[in-house]
Design brief:
By secondary structure, this protein is mainly alpha-helical. It has one domain. Helix content is about 85%, strand content about 0%. Helix 1 packs antiparallel against helix 10 and helix 3 packs antiparallel against helix 5. It is globular and about 55 Å long. It starts with 11 loop residues before the first helix and ends with a helix.
Protein backbone atom coordinates (compact mmCIF):
# COMPACT_ATOMS: atom_id res chain seq x y z
CA UNK A 1 0.00 0.00 0.00
CA UNK A 2 3.03 2.26 -0.02
CA UNK A 3 2.12 3.56 -3.47
CA UNK A 4 -1.16 5.05 -2.23
CA UNK A 5 -1.50 8.83 -2.35
CA UNK A 6 -3.39 10.75 0.31
CA UNK A 7 -5.53 12.92 -1.95
CA UNK A 8 -6.86 15.06 0.93
CA UNK A 9 -3.50 16.71 1.62
CA UNK A 10 -0.60 18.32 -0.25
CA UNK A 11 -0.33 20.39 -3.41
CA UNK A 12 -3.37 19.94 -5.61
CA UNK A 13 -1.85 20.09 -9.09
CA UNK A 14 1.07 17.78 -8.38
CA UNK A 15 -1.19 15.32 -6.53
CA UNK A 16 -3.66 15.26 -9.40
CA UNK A 17 -0.92 14.79 -11.98
CA UNK A 18 0.79 12.01 -9.99
CA UNK A 19 -2.51 10.17 -9.75
CA UNK A 20 -3.70 10.96 -13.26
CA UNK A 21 -0.62 10.14 -15.33
CA UNK A 22 -0.63 6.37 -14.64
CA UNK A 23 -4.43 6.27 -15.11
CA UNK A 24 -4.12 8.09 -18.44
CA UNK A 25 -1.32 5.75 -19.44
CA UNK A 26 -3.55 2.81 -18.54
CA UNK A 27 -6.31 4.32 -20.68
CA UNK A 28 -3.87 4.58 -23.58
CA UNK A 29 -3.02 0.94 -23.06
CA UNK A 30 -6.70 0.04 -23.39
CA UNK A 31 -6.83 2.16 -26.54
CA UNK A 32 -3.72 0.44 -27.85
CA UNK A 33 -5.51 -2.92 -27.72
CA UNK A 34 -7.99 -1.67 -30.29
CA UNK A 35 -5.41 0.24 -32.30
CA UNK A 36 -3.14 -2.81 -32.48
CA UNK A 37 -6.02 -4.99 -33.66
CA UNK A 38 -7.13 -2.39 -36.19
CA UNK A 39 -3.61 -1.79 -37.53
CA UNK A 40 -2.97 -5.48 -38.20
CA UNK A 41 -6.49 -6.22 -39.41
CA UNK A 42 -6.25 -3.24 -41.79
CA UNK A 43 -3.32 -5.02 -43.42
CA UNK A 44 -5.29 -8.26 -43.48
CA UNK A 45 -8.46 -6.90 -45.12
CA UNK A 46 -10.93 -4.02 -44.94
CA UNK A 47 -13.65 -6.64 -44.42
CA UNK A 48 -11.96 -7.83 -41.22
CA UNK A 49 -11.85 -4.24 -39.93
CA UNK A 50 -15.57 -3.83 -40.66
CA UNK A 51 -16.37 -7.14 -38.92
CA UNK A 52 -14.42 -6.38 -35.75
CA UNK A 53 -15.69 -2.80 -35.71
CA UNK A 54 -19.28 -4.00 -35.87
CA UNK A 55 -18.80 -6.58 -33.11
CA UNK A 56 -16.95 -3.94 -31.12
CA UNK A 57 -20.23 -2.09 -30.60
CA UNK A 58 -21.25 -4.89 -28.24
CA UNK A 59 -17.97 -4.60 -26.33
CA UNK A 60 -18.69 -0.90 -25.98
CA UNK A 61 -22.09 -1.76 -24.53
CA UNK A 62 -20.31 -4.20 -22.22
CA UNK A 63 -17.99 -1.43 -21.05
CA UNK A 64 -21.13 0.38 -19.93
CA UNK A 65 -22.17 -2.61 -17.84
CA UNK A 66 -18.73 -2.60 -16.24
CA UNK A 67 -19.38 0.98 -15.09
CA UNK A 68 -22.10 -0.21 -12.71
CA UNK A 69 -19.52 -1.81 -10.45
CA UNK A 70 -16.50 0.23 -11.58
CA UNK A 71 -17.97 3.69 -10.92
CA UNK A 72 -20.23 2.69 -8.06
CA UNK A 73 -17.43 0.84 -6.28
CA UNK A 74 -14.76 3.43 -7.10
CA UNK A 75 -16.76 6.37 -5.76
CA UNK A 76 -17.88 4.47 -2.63
CA UNK A 77 -14.33 3.35 -1.86
CA UNK A 78 -12.99 6.90 -2.38
CA UNK A 79 -15.57 8.32 0.04
CA UNK A 80 -14.74 5.65 2.63
CA UNK A 81 -11.00 6.33 2.21
CA UNK A 82 -11.67 10.03 2.77
CA UNK A 83 -13.43 9.15 6.04
CA UNK A 84 -10.59 6.72 6.87
CA UNK A 85 -13.18 3.96 7.37
CA UNK A 86 -11.21 0.90 6.20
CA UNK A 87 -13.81 -1.62 7.36
CA UNK A 88 -16.34 -0.03 5.05
CA UNK A 89 -13.78 -0.03 2.22
CA UNK A 90 -13.46 -3.83 2.54
CA UNK A 91 -17.23 -4.35 2.55
CA UNK A 92 -17.69 -2.22 -0.57
CA UNK A 93 -14.92 -4.11 -2.40
CA UNK A 94 -16.40 -7.54 -1.62
CA UNK A 95 -19.89 -6.43 -2.70
CA UNK A 96 -18.55 -4.74 -5.83
CA UNK A 97 -16.73 -7.82 -7.05
CA UNK A 98 -19.74 -10.06 -6.40
CA UNK A 99 -21.90 -7.72 -8.49
CA UNK A 100 -19.29 -7.41 -11.26
CA UNK A 101 -18.87 -11.17 -11.70
CA UNK A 102 -22.63 -11.75 -11.74
CA UNK A 103 -23.17 -9.18 -14.48
CA UNK A 104 -20.20 -10.51 -16.48
CA UNK A 105 -21.57 -14.06 -16.53
CA UNK A 106 -24.99 -12.89 -17.74
CA UNK A 107 -23.47 -10.73 -20.49
CA UNK A 108 -21.13 -13.52 -21.61
CA UNK A 109 -24.10 -15.86 -22.08
CA UNK A 110 -25.95 -13.17 -24.04
CA UNK A 111 -23.07 -12.57 -26.48
CA UNK A 112 -22.38 -16.25 -27.07
CA UNK A 113 -25.98 -17.48 -27.40
CA UNK A 114 -27.37 -14.59 -29.45
CA UNK A 115 -24.37 -13.63 -31.59
CA UNK A 116 -26.13 -14.36 -34.90
CA UNK A 117 -29.15 -12.24 -34.04
CA UNK A 118 -26.91 -9.46 -32.71
CA UNK A 119 -24.77 -9.22 -35.86
CA UNK A 120 -27.87 -9.59 -38.04
CA UNK A 121 -29.19 -6.32 -36.59
CA UNK A 122 -26.47 -4.32 -38.35
CA UNK A 123 -27.64 -5.38 -41.81
CA UNK A 124 -24.10 -5.90 -43.15
CA UNK A 125 -23.76 -6.50 -46.88
CA UNK A 126 -21.11 -9.21 -47.26
CA UNK A 127 -21.47 -12.79 -45.97
CA UNK A 128 -17.75 -12.91 -45.19
CA UNK A 129 -17.99 -9.85 -42.93
CA UNK A 130 -21.04 -11.26 -41.16
CA UNK A 131 -19.34 -14.61 -40.44
CA UNK A 132 -16.14 -12.95 -39.18
CA UNK A 133 -18.15 -10.67 -36.89
CA UNK A 134 -20.08 -13.60 -35.41
CA UNK A 135 -16.89 -15.58 -34.79
CA UNK A 136 -15.18 -12.59 -33.18
CA UNK A 137 -18.15 -12.00 -30.88
CA UNK A 138 -18.28 -15.69 -29.87
CA UNK A 139 -14.60 -15.82 -28.85
CA UNK A 140 -14.59 -12.48 -27.03
CA UNK A 141 -17.88 -13.36 -25.36
CA UNK A 142 -16.36 -16.47 -23.81
CA UNK A 143 -13.66 -14.37 -22.12
CA UNK A 144 -15.71 -11.30 -21.30
CA UNK A 145 -15.38 -11.89 -17.54
CA UNK A 146 -11.71 -10.87 -17.70
CA UNK A 147 -12.63 -7.57 -19.39
CA UNK A 148 -15.08 -6.97 -16.52
CA UNK A 149 -12.68 -7.80 -13.70
CA UNK A 150 -9.62 -5.77 -14.73
CA UNK A 151 -11.26 -2.30 -14.65
CA UNK A 152 -12.69 -3.06 -11.20
CA UNK A 153 -9.29 -4.12 -9.87
CA UNK A 154 -7.96 -0.83 -11.26
CA UNK A 155 -10.82 1.24 -9.81
CA UNK A 156 -10.20 -0.11 -6.31
CA UNK A 157 -6.51 0.78 -6.44
CA UNK A 158 -7.10 4.17 -8.11
CA UNK A 159 -9.63 5.18 -5.45
CA UNK A 160 -7.03 4.47 -2.77
CA UNK A 161 -4.51 6.68 -4.58
CA UNK A 162 -2.50 3.84 -6.19
CA UNK A 163 -2.66 4.28 -9.97
CA UNK A 164 0.85 2.91 -10.66
CA UNK A 165 0.09 -0.78 -10.13
CA UNK A 166 -2.88 -0.89 -12.57
CA UNK A 167 -0.71 0.81 -15.19
CA UNK A 168 2.08 -1.74 -14.85
CA UNK A 169 -0.25 -4.73 -14.92
CA UNK A 170 -2.26 -3.51 -17.90
CA UNK A 171 1.02 -2.92 -19.73
CA UNK A 172 1.74 -6.63 -19.44
CA UNK A 173 -1.53 -7.37 -21.23
CA UNK A 174 -0.79 -4.87 -24.01
CA UNK A 175 2.63 -6.38 -24.68
CA UNK A 176 1.07 -9.85 -24.87
CA UNK A 177 -1.58 -8.58 -27.30
CA UNK A 178 1.00 -6.83 -29.49
CA UNK A 179 3.04 -10.03 -29.75
CA UNK A 180 0.09 -12.33 -30.39
CA UNK A 181 -1.86 -10.16 -32.87
CA UNK A 182 0.34 -10.55 -35.98
CA UNK A 183 1.03 -14.21 -35.17
CA UNK A 184 -2.63 -15.19 -34.85
CA UNK A 185 -4.05 -12.86 -37.51
CA UNK A 186 -1.58 -13.77 -40.29
CA UNK A 187 -0.27 -17.11 -39.01
CA UNK A 188 3.31 -18.29 -38.62
CA UNK A 189 4.78 -21.78 -38.99
CA UNK A 190 2.22 -24.35 -37.79
CA UNK A 191 -0.15 -21.59 -36.59
CA UNK A 192 -2.74 -20.91 -39.33
CA UNK A 193 -3.95 -17.47 -40.41
CA UNK A 194 -7.09 -16.74 -38.38
CA UNK A 195 -7.86 -13.11 -39.28
CA UNK A 196 -10.54 -11.57 -37.04
CA UNK A 197 -10.72 -14.74 -34.91
CA UNK A 198 -6.99 -14.41 -34.23
CA UNK A 199 -7.46 -10.85 -32.99
CA UNK A 200 -10.23 -12.07 -30.65
CA UNK A 201 -8.06 -14.85 -29.23
CA UNK A 202 -5.14 -12.45 -28.70
CA UNK A 203 -7.31 -9.95 -26.85
CA UNK A 204 -9.01 -12.57 -24.67
CA UNK A 205 -5.73 -14.25 -23.71
CA UNK A 206 -4.10 -10.91 -22.88
CA UNK A 207 -7.00 -9.82 -20.66
CA UNK A 208 -6.97 -13.17 -18.86
CA UNK A 209 -3.24 -12.76 -18.23
CA UNK A 210 -3.81 -9.35 -16.64
CA UNK A 211 -6.50 -10.77 -14.34
CA UNK A 212 -4.16 -13.53 -13.18
CA UNK A 213 -1.38 -11.03 -12.46
CA UNK A 214 -3.79 -8.72 -10.57
CA UNK A 215 -4.70 -11.64 -8.30
CA UNK A 216 -1.08 -12.70 -7.85
CA UNK A 217 0.19 -9.19 -7.06
CA UNK A 218 -2.75 -8.59 -4.72
CA UNK A 219 -1.89 -11.67 -2.67
CA UNK A 220 1.84 -10.93 -2.72
CA UNK A 221 1.59 -7.26 -1.70
CA UNK A 222 -1.43 -7.58 0.55
CA UNK A 223 -3.52 -5.19 -1.55
CA UNK A 224 -6.89 -4.57 0.04
CA UNK A 225 -8.83 -6.33 -2.74
CA UNK A 226 -6.95 -9.57 -1.92
CA UNK A 227 -9.18 -9.87 1.16
CA UNK A 228 -12.35 -10.03 -0.92
CA UNK A 229 -14.86 -12.65 0.20
CA UNK A 230 -16.89 -13.77 -2.80
CA UNK A 231 -18.52 -16.90 -1.39
CA UNK A 232 -20.56 -15.12 1.24
CA UNK A 233 -24.12 -13.85 1.27
CA UNK A 234 -24.26 -10.53 -0.66
CA UNK A 235 -24.72 -7.48 1.55
CA UNK A 236 -27.64 -5.69 -0.11
CA UNK A 237 -26.90 -2.41 1.69
CA UNK A 238 -23.56 -2.01 -0.07
CA UNK A 239 -24.72 -3.46 -3.37
CA UNK A 240 -27.63 -1.00 -3.48
CA UNK A 241 -25.25 1.91 -2.90
CA UNK A 242 -22.93 0.69 -5.68
CA UNK A 243 -25.85 0.17 -8.07
CA UNK A 244 -27.33 3.60 -7.26
CA UNK A 245 -24.06 5.30 -8.18
CA UNK A 246 -23.15 3.03 -11.07
CA UNK A 247 -26.42 2.67 -12.97
CA UNK A 248 -26.60 6.27 -14.32
CA UNK A 249 -23.15 6.07 -16.01
CA UNK A 250 -24.14 2.63 -17.36
CA UNK A 251 -27.39 3.99 -18.76
CA UNK A 252 -25.53 6.81 -20.49
CA UNK A 253 -22.95 4.47 -22.01
CA UNK A 254 -25.58 1.87 -22.93
CA UNK A 255 -27.71 4.45 -24.72
CA UNK A 256 -24.60 5.93 -26.33
CA UNK A 257 -23.49 2.53 -27.63
CA UNK A 258 -27.04 1.70 -28.74
CA UNK A 259 -27.15 4.96 -30.67
CA UNK A 260 -23.80 4.06 -32.18
CA UNK A 261 -25.29 0.72 -33.30
CA UNK A 262 -28.18 2.54 -34.95
CA UNK A 263 -25.78 4.96 -36.63
CA UNK A 264 -23.65 2.00 -37.77
CA UNK A 265 -26.74 0.61 -39.47
CA UNK A 266 -27.28 3.98 -41.18
CA UNK A 267 -23.62 4.05 -42.17
CA UNK A 268 -23.84 0.50 -43.60
CA UNK A 269 -26.15 1.91 -46.26
CA UNK A 270 -23.11 3.76 -47.59
CA UNK A 271 -21.14 0.49 -47.85
CA UNK A 272 -18.87 -1.64 -45.66
CA UNK A 273 -15.95 0.73 -46.32
CA UNK A 274 -17.91 3.44 -44.51
CA UNK A 275 -18.32 1.10 -41.51
CA UNK A 276 -14.57 0.45 -41.55
CA UNK A 277 -13.90 4.21 -41.68
CA UNK A 278 -16.00 4.78 -38.58
CA UNK A 279 -14.20 1.97 -36.77
CA UNK A 280 -10.71 3.22 -37.64
CA UNK A 281 -11.65 6.85 -37.09
CA UNK A 282 -13.15 6.20 -33.67
CA UNK A 283 -10.00 4.30 -32.68
CA UNK A 284 -7.88 7.33 -33.59
CA UNK A 285 -10.32 9.71 -31.92
CA UNK A 286 -10.05 7.64 -28.74
CA UNK A 287 -6.72 9.41 -28.18
CA UNK A 288 -8.81 12.23 -26.76
CA UNK A 289 -11.59 10.48 -24.91
CA UNK A 290 -9.36 7.88 -23.28
CA UNK A 291 -6.96 10.61 -22.13
CA UNK A 292 -9.91 12.55 -20.77
CA UNK A 293 -11.43 9.48 -19.12
CA UNK A 294 -8.10 8.72 -17.47
CA UNK A 295 -7.81 12.22 -16.07
CA UNK A 296 -11.53 12.21 -15.28
CA UNK A 297 -11.01 9.09 -13.15
CA UNK A 298 -8.26 10.92 -11.27
CA UNK A 299 -10.55 13.91 -10.72
CA UNK A 300 -13.28 11.55 -9.48
CA UNK A 301 -10.93 9.87 -6.98
CA UNK A 302 -9.52 13.23 -5.86
CA UNK A 303 -12.91 14.85 -5.36
CA UNK A 304 -14.29 11.62 -3.86
CA UNK A 305 -11.69 11.46 -1.10
CA UNK A 306 -12.02 15.18 -0.35
CA UNK A 307 -15.79 14.82 -0.36
CA UNK A 308 -15.45 12.11 2.29
CA UNK A 309 -13.08 14.38 4.24
CA UNK A 310 -15.44 17.38 3.75
CA UNK A 311 -12.72 19.60 2.23
CA UNK A 312 -14.66 21.98 -0.01
CA UNK A 313 -11.75 24.25 -0.95
CA UNK A 314 -9.73 21.34 -2.35
CA UNK A 315 -12.78 20.16 -4.30
CA UNK A 316 -13.18 23.56 -5.98
CA UNK A 317 -9.49 23.99 -6.71
CA UNK A 318 -9.08 20.40 -7.84
CA UNK A 319 -11.79 20.74 -10.48
CA UNK A 320 -10.37 24.06 -11.72
CA UNK A 321 -6.86 22.63 -12.11
CA UNK A 322 -8.20 19.49 -13.72
CA UNK A 323 -10.16 21.45 -16.32
CA UNK A 324 -7.12 23.55 -17.19
CA UNK A 325 -5.13 20.42 -17.94
CA UNK A 326 -7.97 18.69 -19.80
CA UNK A 327 -8.68 21.79 -21.88
CA UNK A 328 -5.06 21.78 -23.02
CA UNK A 329 -5.26 18.10 -23.93
CA UNK A 330 -8.46 18.66 -25.91
CA UNK A 331 -7.03 21.64 -27.78
CA UNK A 332 -3.95 19.78 -28.97
CA UNK A 333 -6.04 16.71 -29.84
CA UNK A 334 -8.15 18.91 -32.11
CA UNK A 335 -5.04 20.19 -33.85
CA UNK A 336 -3.72 16.65 -34.26
CA UNK A 337 -6.88 15.29 -35.87
CA UNK A 338 -7.45 18.28 -38.13
CA UNK A 339 -3.88 18.84 -39.33
CA UNK A 340 -2.69 15.22 -39.24
CA UNK A 341 -5.78 13.49 -40.64
CA UNK A 342 -4.16 11.93 -43.71
CA UNK A 343 -1.00 10.46 -42.15
CA UNK A 344 -2.96 9.26 -39.11
CA UNK A 345 -5.57 7.39 -41.12
CA UNK A 346 -3.05 6.04 -43.62
CA UNK A 347 -1.33 4.11 -40.82
CA UNK A 348 -4.33 1.80 -40.53
CA UNK A 349 -5.53 1.35 -44.13
CA UNK A 350 -2.45 2.08 -46.27
CA UNK A 351 -3.72 0.13 -49.29
CA UNK A 352 -7.25 1.56 -49.53
CA UNK A 353 -7.34 5.10 -51.04
CA UNK A 354 -11.14 5.32 -50.78
CA UNK A 355 -11.07 4.55 -47.05
CA UNK A 356 -8.25 7.06 -46.56
CA UNK A 357 -10.20 9.79 -48.37
CA UNK A 358 -13.33 9.20 -46.30
CA UNK A 359 -11.25 8.84 -43.14
CA UNK A 360 -9.71 12.28 -43.62
CA UNK A 361 -13.21 13.80 -43.69
CA UNK A 362 -14.15 11.91 -40.52
CA UNK A 363 -11.10 13.02 -38.52
CA UNK A 364 -11.29 16.67 -39.56
CA UNK A 365 -14.99 16.97 -38.70
CA UNK A 366 -14.66 15.15 -35.38
CA UNK A 367 -11.47 17.11 -34.64
CA UNK A 368 -13.57 20.21 -34.08
CA UNK A 369 -15.22 18.66 -31.02
CA UNK A 370 -12.21 17.24 -29.16
CA UNK A 371 -11.81 20.15 -26.71
CA UNK A 372 -15.47 19.92 -25.73
CA UNK A 373 -15.33 16.14 -25.41
CA UNK A 374 -12.43 16.45 -22.96
CA UNK A 375 -14.21 19.00 -20.76
CA UNK A 376 -17.42 16.95 -20.75
CA UNK A 377 -15.68 13.74 -19.66
CA UNK A 378 -13.61 15.49 -16.99
CA UNK A 379 -16.69 17.20 -15.59
CA UNK A 380 -18.54 13.89 -15.47
CA UNK A 381 -15.67 12.58 -13.33
CA UNK A 382 -16.10 15.53 -10.98
CA UNK A 383 -19.84 14.89 -10.63
CA UNK A 384 -19.10 11.21 -9.95
CA UNK A 385 -16.65 12.16 -7.21
CA UNK A 386 -19.44 14.06 -5.47
CA UNK A 387 -21.68 10.99 -5.72
CA UNK A 388 -23.88 12.85 -8.24
CA UNK A 389 -23.79 10.48 -11.21
CA UNK A 390 -27.24 11.43 -12.55
CA UNK A 391 -26.58 14.94 -14.03
CA UNK A 392 -23.87 13.84 -16.52
CA UNK A 393 -26.09 10.91 -17.50
CA UNK A 394 -29.07 13.15 -18.27
CA UNK A 395 -26.98 15.59 -20.30
CA UNK A 396 -25.25 12.75 -22.16
CA UNK A 397 -28.46 10.89 -22.96
CA UNK A 398 -30.32 13.96 -24.22
CA UNK A 399 -27.63 15.10 -26.63
CA UNK A 400 -26.64 11.60 -27.72
CA UNK A 401 -30.26 10.85 -28.62
CA UNK A 402 -30.27 14.07 -30.62
CA UNK A 403 -27.66 12.50 -32.89
CA UNK A 404 -30.21 10.19 -34.54
CA UNK A 405 -32.63 12.77 -36.00
CA UNK A 406 -29.74 15.11 -36.77
CA UNK A 407 -27.84 12.34 -38.58
CA UNK A 408 -30.94 11.38 -40.57
CA UNK A 409 -31.60 14.99 -41.51
CA UNK A 410 -28.04 15.90 -42.49
CA UNK A 411 -27.24 12.63 -44.29
CA UNK A 412 -30.33 13.09 -46.48
CA UNK A 413 -28.85 16.31 -47.86
CA UNK A 414 -25.92 16.72 -50.24
CA UNK A 415 -23.61 16.02 -47.27
CA UNK A 416 -24.47 12.31 -47.41
CA UNK A 417 -22.15 10.31 -45.13
CA UNK A 418 -20.49 13.53 -43.91
CA UNK A 419 -23.81 14.52 -42.36
CA UNK A 420 -23.52 11.65 -39.89
CA UNK A 421 -20.01 12.76 -38.91
CA UNK A 422 -21.29 16.31 -38.40
CA UNK A 423 -24.16 15.08 -36.19
CA UNK A 424 -21.68 13.29 -33.91
CA UNK A 425 -19.36 16.29 -33.71
CA UNK A 426 -22.07 18.88 -33.05
CA UNK A 427 -23.64 16.83 -30.24
CA UNK A 428 -20.22 16.48 -28.56
CA UNK A 429 -19.73 20.25 -28.68
CA UNK A 430 -23.13 20.76 -27.07
CA UNK A 431 -22.42 18.27 -24.24
CA UNK A 432 -19.04 19.83 -23.57
CA UNK A 433 -20.67 23.23 -23.20
CA UNK A 434 -23.74 22.45 -21.10
CA UNK A 435 -22.29 19.98 -18.54
CA UNK A 436 -19.41 22.21 -17.28
CA UNK A 437 -21.87 25.10 -16.98
CA UNK A 438 -24.14 22.92 -14.84
CA UNK A 439 -21.23 21.83 -12.64
CA UNK A 440 -20.08 25.41 -12.07
CA UNK A 441 -23.60 26.29 -10.96
CA UNK A 442 -23.71 23.36 -8.50
CA UNK A 443 -20.24 23.90 -7.09
CA UNK A 444 -20.86 27.61 -6.51
CA UNK A 445 -24.32 27.35 -4.97
CA UNK A 446 -24.84 23.84 -3.59
CA UNK A 447 -21.48 22.31 -2.62
CA UNK A 448 -21.76 22.86 1.12
CA UNK A 449 -25.32 21.50 1.11
CA UNK A 450 -24.26 18.40 -0.84
CA UNK A 451 -21.46 17.67 1.63
CA UNK A 452 -23.68 18.26 4.67
CA UNK A 453 -25.96 15.46 3.45
CA UNK A 454 -22.98 13.08 3.11
Amino acid sequence: MERNLNLTEGKITSTLVKLAMPIMATSFIQMAYGLTDTMWLGRYSTEAVAAVGTAGNLLWFGSGLILISQIGLGVSVAHAYGRRDMEEVKKYISSGFQLDIFIAILYSLFLVLFRREIIGFFNLNQKEVIEMAQTYLFIVGLGVIFQFLNPVFSAVLNSGGNSVTPFKLNTIGLVANMVLDPILIFGIGPIPSMGAAGAAIATTFSQALVTIVFIYIGKKNGEIYSRVKLLVKPDLKYIKRIVKLGVPPFVQTAIHSSISMILTRFIANFGDVAVAVMNVGSQIESITWLSAEGFGSAISAFIGQNYGAKKTVRIRRGYKRGMQILGTIGFFASLLLILGAKPLFSIFTPEDPIAIREGIHYLRILGLSQFFMATEIGTAGAFNGLGKTLPPTLIGVVFNLFRIPMALALSSTSLGLLGIWWAISISSIMKGTVLPALYYYNIRTKLETIIEHN
